[in-house]
Amino acid sequence: MITTLATWTIGSGTLLIETGDITTSTADAIVNAANSRLAGGGGVDGAIHDAAGPELLRACAEIIAQDGTLPPGRAVVTPGFRLSARLVVHTVGPIWRGGTNGEDETLASAYRESVLAAATHGATCVHFPAISCGVYRFPIERAAGIALKTIAKSLREGLVNSISMVIFSRDTAKTWLAVGREVLGPPA
């Protein structure tokens, strides 16, 4: 189940901060915080692979066989298979190395490229996890600011109609809410 905590109107679109399990999303597309081999793993990546079924891993293996590993900041699309979401957009976020190795730009690129990939495949509603905020150790407040500014810009450009940040942990979601108020102003 996914619960909406806050909503902002940005251009003609909507940005939401929600809490819950992204694998239950009914959005057109969900974003997977993947590793560069698209091999599944822990956290949200493992949960999405488990929920989508083995077809997702096979589709990812085909992409890797054809194109090689996915660099940080880029995105590719597969079907959602057993998920309610029609599409899974796989992106690789940066590993935090102190903030002096282009991490901010790479994280912004991961969000931007994911929205573009989803829109190119006909998605109008996209749900994101908190990319790089788990084992990749990106500071949550910093990541939230970058993510919200980047997806707000995508909404202003009319790339999609709705973007949600679906944060698994309620405590982490509270941080995203505070940053959202700071970056976007008060929610509707």
UniProtKB/TrEMBL annotation:
PANTHER family: GANGLIOSIDE INDUCED DIFFERENTIATION ASSOCIATED PROTEIN 2-RELATED, MACRO DOMAIN-CONTAINING PROTEIN. InterPro entries: Macro_dom (IPR002589), Macro_dom-like (IPR043472). Pfam families: Macro. Residues 2-184 form the Macro domain. It comes from the Bacteria. The lineage of its organism: Bacteria, Pseudomonadati, Thermodesulfobacteriota, Desulfovibrionia, Desulfovibrionales. It comes from Desulfobaculum xiamenense. This is O-acetyl-ADP-ribose deacetylase (Regulator of RNase III).
